[in-house]
Amino acid sequence: MDIGEVDLTHLRISKTGEHDVSLTPVPGGEVMLPAPSGESSAAAEPEMTSLHALIAAVNDKYGLGLSEADQIWVEQQFQEAVGNESLKVAALVNDEANFGEVFADHLEKVVVDRHTGNTNLVQRFFDDSLFRSRITDLGRKQVYRMIRESNDLE
Description:
Layout (H helix, E strand, L loop, with lengths): L23 E2 L5 E2 L18 H12 L5 H15 L2 H9 L2 H32 L1 H22 L4
Antiparallel strand pairs: 1-2
């Protein structure tokens, strides 16, 4: 996706840790690169985290200001991707790294398709009074319950 020219207006620099990146010279003038730490050469299993924690970390590191509503949007894209047959096949026959090669392109299509679906849903909400009434009734009950529960009243 080409977004055209970009003008950098802000740059955030922050220290993420102390790292020794020095190289050790060995006889013969060559430089020895440090070996990976750990007992085995197998790749470590990545630590899993909740989407909520991930969004909080991204907000903290990059200052994106993503909200809980944004979290729901992200989850919606992922759920749509899980239902994509091409992605299912790719996930079942590849490791995660190779799956990643396929995923990025498919995710863009999923986001566009989901946007179209959401646009149609918004249009239906405003055009179909029965649908709007049912969504409003459902929303009233759920939002009321959620607000009361978050304030320990239920």
